[in-house]
TrEMBL record:
Belongs to the zinc-containing alcohol dehydrogenase family. The lineage of its organism: Bacteria, Bacillati, Actinomycetota, Actinomycetes, Micrococcales. Keywords: Metal-binding, NAD, Oxidoreductase, Zinc. It comes from the Bacteria. It comes from Cellulomonas hominis. It catalyses: a primary alcohol + NAD(+) = an aldehyde + NADH + H(+); a secondary alcohol + NAD(+) = a ketone + NADH + H(+). The gene is adhA. SUPFAM superfamilies: GroES-like (SSF50129), NAD(P)-binding Rossmann-fold domains (SSF51735). PANTHER family: ALCOHOL DEHYDROGENASE 1-RELATED (PTHR42940), VACUOLAR PROTEIN SORTING-ASSOCIATED PROTEIN 11 (PTHR42940:SF8). Its cofactor is Zn(2+). Residues 14-338 form the Enoyl reductase (ER) domain. This is Alcohol dehydrogenase. Its EC number is 1.1.1.1. One of its GO terms (molecular function) is zinc ion binding. PROSITE patterns: ADH_ZINC.
Length: 342
């Protein structure tokens, strides 16, 4: 067992990540040490490294919350996994387990939670610590690089769709076709919905159709709300994954009466909400943050059964700053996955 590992570290918010040698951490009683094989790069990692959000992470820290690998050591109290098991990390690193939200199965709302790659070190490293009571496990049969995008993007959109209260056959808008969006189209289809993808980039049209969208609306071609009403009479639900404030009111305008918009994209900022329109049209606006451990099991199961796929490109850990640059311009199709073996 080596003593040192390579990690991509945020030393200062807003500055490029630094590739460093760090000591391999030692698991506490409930923790497992995982040798990371792959880690997906989520836009949240970019928000974290830039300090975009009101609650900022404290440098130095290692981002990454879509890591997958194998357990190499466990703490004294760990019974759920053993050495050699497949395990990952997730945004929800751990929670208190005793507050009202934890007790009612909403550990994602626990105020005592810790978040991987934000308040605790994440998976942009050769090794990571996880809380063995909270971290996702997956079977040998799944593609380890492919499953990484399920661990945040997949579970987040799956949960966001679950709380959008649509029925099979309903029209669901997916706005923003990046890492989350490419999974959202597929989960929505697998859940029985009919998908309208909304993008500002014509190059994403073909991929959106390939992921399972029946219709694609380019918001640059005219008012996208009008377009969705003309095409299908308005959507029953909309899931906003785009990193742009303007897409939030835009998604609301696409809803039919009684519709729900589920917000998962996290650009910093606010958006105007018409009281009159929301009340008279009976609209619901919901925020949705990742998924619980149960949502994660279900989301991984969709992937393991082949009901959803992830589109990814492998890059070495050292390329993380280039990946962030591409992410800023919205030009990544699917996910970039860091391969610790490259
Ligand atoms: P990404 O960079 O892979 O994709 C974002 C996409 O939005 C890009 O394809 C970009 O082209 C598109 N976009 C930008 N402006 C747009 C516009 N005006 N209209 C339509 N599309 C537009 O990012 P990602 O990893 O998919 O993450 C998306 C957002 O979701 C981030 O803000 C991230 O922090 C957030 N997120 C939230 C949760 C949650 O639990 N709520 C979980 C994961 C990520
Ligand atoms: Zn709690
Ligand atoms: Zn994420």
């Amino acid at each position: 067992m080596p003593e040192m590992m390579k990690a991509a570290v945020v030393r200062d918010l807003g500055a490029p990540l630094v590739i460093e040698e760090r000591p391999i951490p030692v698991p506490g009683p409930h923790q497992a040490l995982v040798k990371v094989d792959y880690s997906g790069v989520c836009h949240t990692d970019l928000h974290a490294a830039r300090g975009d959000w009101p609650v900022k992470p404290t440098p130095p820290f290692v981002p990454g919350h879509e890591g997958a690998g194998r357990v190499v050591a466990v703490g004294s109290e760990v019974t759920r996994v053993k050495e050699g098991d497949r395990m990952g990390n997730a945004w929800l690193a751990t929670a208190c387990g005793t507050c009202v939200d934890c007790l009612r199965g909403w550990e994602t709302l626990c105020t005592g939670q810790q978040n991987s790659g934000y308040s605790v070190d994440g998976s942009f490293a050769e090794y990571m610590l996880v809380d063995a009571r909270y971290a996702p496990v997956f079977p040998e049969s799944v593609d380890a690089a492919g499953v990484t995008a399920v661990l945040c993007a997949g579970v987040t959109v799956y949960k966001g769709l679950k709380v959008a209260d649509a029925k099979p056959g309903d029209w669901v808008v997916v706005s923003g076709i990046g890492g989350l969006g490419h999974m959202a189209i597929q989960y929505a289809k697998a859940m029985g919905y009919r998908v309208i993808a909304v993008t500002g980039s014509e190059s994403k049209r073909a991929s959106a159709l390939e992921y399972g969208a029946e219709l694609v609306v380019n918001y640059r071609d005219g008012d996208p709300g009008e377009a969705v009403h003309d095409l299908v009479g308005g959507a029953h639900a909309a899931l906003v994954t785009a990193v742009s404030e303007s897409t939030f009111p835009q998604a609301l305008s696409m809803l039919r009466r009684g519709g729900t918009v589920s917000l998962v994209g996290l650009p910093p900022g606010t958006f105007p909400l018409s009281i009159f329109d929301t009340v008279l049209r009976g609209l619901t606006v919901r925020g949705s943050i990742v998924g619980t451990r149960l949502d994660m099991m279900e989301a991984v199961d969709f992937f393991a059964r082949g009901a959803v796929h992830t589109k990814y490109e492998l890059r070495p850990l050292d390329a993380v700053n280039d990946v962030f640059t591409r992410m800023e311009t919205g030009t990544i199709d699917g996910r970039v996955v860091l391969d610790m073996g490259l």
